[in-house]
């Protein structure tokens, strides 16, 4: 059986199109998942516009934020059955004997390959998924929201695990994209006072950040960062897709504070990191997520403690992928979602 798929077929800009692909064959430890919904990620856009900084196994089906129903199980898959509603983690290929994997930090395994760049992703009808990647979707949580467990887990890892945020802290989030808004929402759940910073063109996205109880700021956030004692904020989360915003973060953070960098930016910095030393600032990278984070996030989504509905800009059919991509790329919506079936 063949199905339509959104395929990134070459490294040149714009090398994405609908192609017909065969239904994937599964191994003994895999399931075949019929995709209900798949979110469009900023990384999908970066591969489309060819300004990404990670290796891609061309041609590859895009899409790593997805959920659906199990339609077939491998012979060694336990504790799942056909028809189960599930979402999948992104670490499609890992070395289970890698020291990091054995600690549960398989997201940091250097050999890791993810859906949508290393192996075929979910912008199609069926996707092959290792059974170890699956999580049960709670009853009552629609797939349109459940498929965003992945970006929520990125934000949880950056904000809750890799940042030291306490109730009463002041936090600035740079970049009002999906991850930035979700990081701001997570920081609010941690009890922080939060501002989210963007450009004039980000006004609609900043308004969504405001709906989560965050202060929206266009341009320079120096004044907000220096309120109270004039020393800066406790933590800056840099969720922008450029490198230069790290210089802004160094300006906003207080001495002995923290900067968490979660946004990718392939260009060189071209500025001095002396303020990092002078301020005694901790610079923390944050990448991906692991099993316990997904479980926490699914509980937050199911309970309504974390509401992703404000960031969903629309749901498009698979054949309308270009419109969905353009809507996000232009900043008209925060998150586009595709419905392959």
Count every helix, treating DSSP H or I runs of 4 or more residues as helices: 11
The 3D shape can be described as globular
What is the CATH topology classification name of the largest domain? Quinone Oxidoreductase, Chain A, domain 1
Classify the helix fraction into a percent range: 25-40%
How many runs of DSSP E, i.e. beta strands? 18
- Number of spatially distinct domains: 2
Short recap of the structure:
This protein is α/β, with parallel strands linked by helices and 341 residues long. The protein has 2 domains: 2-148 and 308-339, Quinone Oxidoreductase, Chain A, domain 1 (Alpha-Beta Complex); 155-285, Rossmann fold (3-Layer(aba) Sandwich), CATH 3.40.50.720.
Highlighted features:
341 residues; alpha/beta; Quinone Oxidoreductase, Chain A, domain 1; Rossmann fold; 2 domains; seven-stranded mixed beta sheet; six-stranded parallel beta sheet; 11 helices; globular
Your description of this structure?
The chain folds into two domains: 2-148 and 308-339, Quinone Oxidoreductase, Chain A, domain 1, CATH 3.90.180.10; 155-285, 3-Layer(aba) Sandwich (Rossmann fold), CATH 3.40.50.720. With 341 residues, it is α/β, with parallel strands linked by helices. The radius of gyration is 20 Å and the shape is globular. It has eleven helices and 18 strands. A hairpin with a 7-residue loop joins strand 1 (2-8) and strand 2 (16-22). The strands form four sheets. Strands 3, 5, 6, 9, 10, 17 and 18 form a seven-stranded mixed beta sheet that branches. Strands 13-12-11-14-15-16 form a six-stranded parallel beta sheet, sandwiched between helices.
